[in-house]
Design a protein that fits this description.
This protein has 351 residues and is of the alpha/beta class. Helices cover 33% and strands 14% of the residues. Bound molecules: flavin mononucleotide.
Length: 351
C-alpha cells in the first residue's frame, strides 16, 4: 500500500491487450541531445533508461521529425529514413528492460522552423509567419500527400524499432495543428477542411501499425488563452474533431493543457479533459503542471484523467515514481529553471 495507490493501477488502452503499467507517463520532451542528423545518441538512451528504472510506466519519446522538411530544432531526434530505426530500438530496449512501455511522438514542425535549419522556406497549411520563426509557405497538394506518407513511414519505422504504441503530435502549433487551426489554414482545396489532414494522417498511421497497436493523439487548443486569441475552437468543433479522429483510429487522447491542466475552458470552470470526456470515452492522458505525487494522485482521483504525462517533474528527478511508491514524496527533487541550463550542457539533472 502506498499513499498514492491510484498512480499504480494498470490502464488498458483498449487495443491489442496493451495496458500502461501505471498511471505515470513521461511526456515527450525534446532535449536536443541527438546527433546533427537527428540520430539517437547513448546519452538519450541512458536518459530513457534512468526514467524507466525510476518506475515510470510509459515513456513517450521526444517529438521525432518524420521528414527532413519537418525538422524543428537542431539536434532534435528524427525517424526520417531507415537509418534511424536502430537508435530507437536501443531506446525501446532500455525501456523494456525496466518494465516500461515505449512509443515515439511522430512530428512535423511545419511553420515552426527556419531556413537556416531546413535549407529552404518552412512549409505550412497556408502562408503563415509563426512568431519567432521564418515565414512559411502553403504546401502544394503533392507535398501534403508526401507528408501523410512521411507520417506513415515514421509509424512503420517505430513499429520496426519495437515500439508498443505510437503518438501523433497534433499539438502546440506544429503541422497537424496548423491544419486544424482556422486562423492558419485558409486553403480552398479539400485540405482546407480543418480535420482533413489530421484525419488522413491518422488513417494512414492506423493502417500501417495494424489493429493491435494503440495510437495516441496529442492535441492542445488553448481556448481562452490570450496568447492564441484567434483560434476558433468551440465545444462543438472540439466534439467534431474528437469524433472524426476517433473514427480514423485514435485510441487514446494525450491532452496537452500547456502549463496548466487545472483551468477552465470555453469560458467555463470545466477543465479541458472534462470537456473531452463529454464527447469521447477514450482514455485520457493529461499534461500540464502536475508536479508532485499528491497533485497527480488527486487529479486522477477527481476523474480528470486516466493517466498523467509529467515532463518537468521527470527532468528534475528520474526516481520520482519509485519515491512516490515508497511514500517518500518528500525526497523528490523539485524542478528548477537551472535544470534547463544543466540539460543544455549535457548533464542529466534528474540522475
Ligand atoms: C524540455 C521540454 C521539452 C518538451 N518537448 C516536447 C515535445 O517534444 N513534444 C511535446 O508534445 N511536448 C513537449 N514538451 C511539453 C511537455 O511534454 C509537457 O506537455 C509540458 O512541459 C507540461 O508538462 P509539465 O508541467 O509536467 O512540464 C516539452 C517540455 C519541456 C519542458
Amino acid at each position: 500500500m502506498s499513499l498514492y495507490d491510484n498512480l499504480f493501477e494498470l490502464l488498458p488502452l483498449g487495443r491489442g491487450g496493451v495496458a500502461l503499467p501505471n498511471r505515470i507517463v513521461m511526456g515527450p520532451m525534446t532535449l536536443n541531445q541527438a546527433t546533427d542528423s537527428g540520430h539517437i545518441t547513448p546519452w538519450i538512451v541512458e536518459w530513457y533508461r534512468r526514467r524507466a528504472a525510476g518506475g515510470v510506466g510509459t515513456l513517450i519519446g521526444a517529438a521525432v521529425f518524420v521528414a527532413q522538411n519537418g525538422r524543428g530544432w537542431r539536434n532534435a531526434v528524427g525517424i526520417a529514413d531507415d537509418s534511424y530505426i536502430e537508435g530507437w530500438q536501443a531506446c525501446v530496449e532500455a525501456a523494456h528492460e525496466n518494465g516500461a512501455l515505449f512509443g515515439t511522438q511522430l512530428f512535423h514542425g511545419g511553420a515552426a522552423s527556419r531556413v537556416s535549419l531546413l535549407g529552404h522556406q518552412p512549409l505550412s497549411a497556408s502562408d503563415w509567419a509563426r512568431e519567432g520563426f521564418d515565414p512559411a509557405r502553403a504546401m502544394t497538394a503533392a507535398e501534403i500527400e508526401q507528408a501523410i506518407e512521411d507520417f506513415e513511414e515514421g509509424a512503420r519505422r517505430s513499429i520496426a524499432a519495437g515500439c508498443d504504441f505510437v503518438e501523433l503530435h497534433g499539438a502546440h502549433g506544429y503541422l497537424l495543428h496548423q491544419f486544424w487551426r482556422g486562423d492558419v489554414n485558409h486553403r480552398t482545396d479539400k485540405w482546407g477542411e480543418p480535420t482533413a489532414f489530421p484525419v488522413a494522417v491518422t488513417r494512414a498511421v492506423r493502417e500501417v501499425i495494424g489493429p493491435d497497436v494503440p495510437l495516441i493523439y496529442r492535441f492542445s487548443i488553448h481556448a481562452d488563452d490570450p496568447a492564441a486569441p484567434n483560434q476558433p475552437v468551440t465545444p462543438d468543433s472540439l466534439s467534431e474533431f474528437l469524433r472524426v479522429l476517433e473514427a480514423a483510429g485514435v485510441d487514446v487522447w494525450d491532452i496537452s493543457c500547456w502549463h496548466e491542466s487545472r483551468r477552465g475552458y470555453f469560458g467555463s470552470d470545466i477543465l479541458l479533459p472534462d470537456w473531452v470526456r463529454r464527447f469521447s470515452d477514450k482514455p485520457r492522458i493529461v499534461a500540464g503542471n502536475l508536479l508532485t505525487p499528491p497533485e497527480t494522485s488527486a487529479y486522477l482521483a477527481q476523474g480528470h484523467a486516466e493517466a498523467t504525462a509529467l515532463a518537468r517533474a521527470l527532468i528534475a528527478d528520474a526516481e520520482w515514481v519509485n519515491k512516490a511508491r515508497k511514500d517518500k514524496a518528500d525526497e523528490i527533487r523539485a524542478f528548477e529553471p537551472s535544470h534547463m541550463s544543466a540539460l543544455k550542457e549535457g548533464t542529466d539533472p534528474g540522475a
